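Title: Comparing notes on inverse folding

I've been comparing how different people in this forum approach sequence design from structure. To keep things fair, I'm posting one structure and asking everyone to reply with a full sequence. Here's the target:
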């Protein structure tokens, strides 16, 4: 084992080990594993943490987006305007709902969907705008809500990378009809497996998502509509309940590390995306390099792991080709340069300093050096 290596992430259970063990034991001893008291309690607790009135636990963040679109009656014949820079699951969820994703290019500074591009992408078939709060930074929700209000469109927020993020002091997930969250293990609030939730202030919308996640059942074995099987299980809900009280502290740690990176990377041969709102929660810390391959090779030679989020813009994914996506040149450019540095709550500040120093060293090397 390379003890000198700075890993990109650390998913081992650390300071919350005893709480997680107790949560798992509680569920096992109760013997109730699907849609029980742990899910119900977590839904209340998570909704409160998000500044909302209702949450519905589902199988994944992808399902959260697809189910809320379906619950709103958005499907075949409808278009949903979204970003080309995200995990492809954002657009795949639109397809799962039966609608067509339409891509509006990103703002080069914020790296989230550009409100000006949204305006240009709207057609008579547009039913909703699906902004993604990417890397932990909220999209420009003031501008997006103004467009939605003016054009009579719904907003569904992809908050899968933005637990506890705010925009202008307001929690993400509360600007539109609903917000979709993921609890994939790498997220700021991660389960020990898959999980997701829909957060909404609309009780009737929450009720319909609850039916849809459980096969469209209003009562057991009576399926009133075509639903799916997408239920947050009791074990994961209990684990998330154990971790939720730590989320604010973990968020503070992420911000401290990110601000240390920003200071240490001043003058470095990379472009650091701007923090456009203090509500940024730094799910990831991406930078842009004009020679990404050289950049990654240099950091790997110094035992520092990096990852790319994301190497292929969603409109260029073969899975979306049938939807005839429009060009998004800013996203193309960003996807060719973006690379993420290690950042997670237990990462020591010394690791940030070392990583930044290695990046600075790259700028002092002759162009052909390795």
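Reply #1:
Here's my take.
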């Amino acid at each position: 084992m390379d003890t000198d290596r700075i890993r990109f992430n650390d998913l081992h259970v650390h300071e919350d080990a005893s709480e997680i063990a107790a949560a798992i034991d509680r569920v096992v001893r109760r013997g109730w594993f699907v849609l029980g008291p742990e899910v119900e309690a977590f839904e209340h607790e998570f909704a409160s943490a998000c500044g909302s009135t209702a949450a519905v636990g589902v199988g994944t963040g992808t399902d959260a987006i697809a189910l809320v679109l379906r619950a709103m009656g958005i499907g075949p014949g409808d278009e949903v305007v979204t970003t080309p820079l995200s995990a492809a699951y954002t657009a795949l969820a639109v397809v799962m709902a039966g609608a067509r994703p339409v891509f509006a290019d990103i703002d080069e500074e914020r790296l989230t969907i550009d409100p000006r591009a949204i305006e240009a992408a709207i057609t008579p078939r547009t039913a909703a705008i699906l902004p993604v709060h990417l890397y932990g930074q909220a999209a420009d929700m003031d501008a997006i809500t103004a467009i939605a209000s003016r054009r009579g469109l719904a907003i569904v927020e992809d908050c899968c990378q933005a637990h506890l993020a705010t925009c202008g002091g307001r929690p993400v997930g509360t600007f539109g009809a609903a917000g979709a969250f993921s609890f994939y293990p790498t997220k700021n609030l991660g389960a020990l497996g898959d999980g997701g939730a829909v957060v909404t202030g609309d009780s009737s919308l929450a009720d319909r998502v609850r039916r849809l996640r459980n096969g469209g059942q209003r009562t057991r074995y009576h399926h009133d509509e075509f639903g799916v099987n997408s239920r947050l299980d009791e074990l994961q809900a209990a684990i998330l309940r154990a971790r939720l009280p730590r989320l604010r502290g973990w968020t503070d740690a992420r911000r401290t590390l990110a601000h240390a990176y920003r200071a240490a990377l001043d003058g470095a041969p990379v472009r650091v995306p701007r923090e456009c709102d203090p509500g940024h929660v730094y799910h990831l810390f991406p930078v842009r390099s004009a020679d990404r391959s050289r950049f990654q090779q240099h950091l790997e030679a110094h035992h520092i792991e990096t990852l790319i989020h994301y190497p292929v813009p969603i409109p260029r994914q073969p899975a979306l080709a049938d939807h005839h996506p429009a060009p998004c040149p800013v996203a193309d450019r960003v996807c060719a340069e973006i690379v993420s540095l290690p950042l997670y709550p237990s990462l020591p500040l010394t690791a940030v300093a070392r990583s930044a120093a290695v990046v600075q060293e790259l700028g002092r090397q002759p162009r052909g050096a390795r």
